[in-house]
Amino acid sequence: MSSHRIGLLVPSSNTTMETEIPEILRRQSALTGDQFTFHASRMRMKTVEKSELAAMNADAGRAAVELADAQVEVMAYACLVAIMSQGNGVHRGIEADLTRTAAENGCAVDVLSSAGALVEGLHHLGARKVSIVTPYMKPLTRLVAEYIESEGVEVQDSISLEVDDNLAVGRLDPSRLPDIAAGLDTRGVDAVVLSACVQMPSLPAIPAAEKRLGLPIVTAAAATSWKVLRTLGLETVADGAGALFRKD
């Protein structure tokens, strides 16, 4: 049995990533015996719009320094749209900058992002075409779709719930997601991104959505959790957490 410290870089108004990511890793622990503790540093963001997202990115270095003090073993920057709204491919530079900042402050760990994790997870599944659900306003959803497509995965269709208040996003009812996702055009897609946002609750809806759509389901929170486990060299297994957590 191993024990691991997980560092979370958290938007100040986020209320979901600190529940869904630990819950997925708790389910992994139930199968493997691995143990985890979670340590967060918050960055100010209340409204999901480009200027606040950019300001949050600018504050991420300070948050990484705080987590470095806790000597965590991995850091996860879990705000997908904060990165994807800043230009295609930028997750690589942001991850590298934060990894360097952590190392300069005595904590030589990998920093991953939910943006990079989602893209990597889709490639891991061999998904070439997806449809997505987001809570964002339509212009931000378009940026997310363009970002995913710039990484070699076609976005066939998207649904935007058009909620820009981040606290309100966290209050959305996940039980509605299977019905919402049923409105997507999923002809010929390889997977559905049920929530392209770690703040929009989705974990309880994954099994029902997979049954309803008959397709592999991925979420931003699930992809982030999967990447955390891979970074630590641990088994990526967890009940009810979607396609990335099923044994090959």
Automatic annotation (TrEMBL):
Pfam families per the UniProt record, alphabetical: Amdase
GO function term, MF aspect, one: maleate isomerase activity
Species for this entry: Streptomyces bingchenggensis (strain BCW-1)
Family membership: Belongs to the maleate isomerase family.
The name this protein goes by in its record: Maleate isomerase
HAMAP family according to UniProt: Maleate_isomerase
Miscellaneous remark of the record: Reaction is initiated by nucleophilic attack of cysteine at the double bond, yielding a covalent succinylcysteine-like intermediate.
Binding site for substrate: 14, 79-81, 136, 166, 198-199
Task of the protein: Catalyzes cis-trans isomerization of the C2-C3 double bond in maleate to yield fumarate.
Class in the EC hierarchy, top level: isomerase
EC number: 5.2.1.1
Transmembrane segments: none
Subunit structure: Homodimer.
Residues bearing the modification S-(2-succinyl)cysteine: 79
Active site feature: 79 (nucleophile), 197 (proton donor)
Keywords: Isomerase
Catalysed reactions, as listed in the record: maleate = fumarate
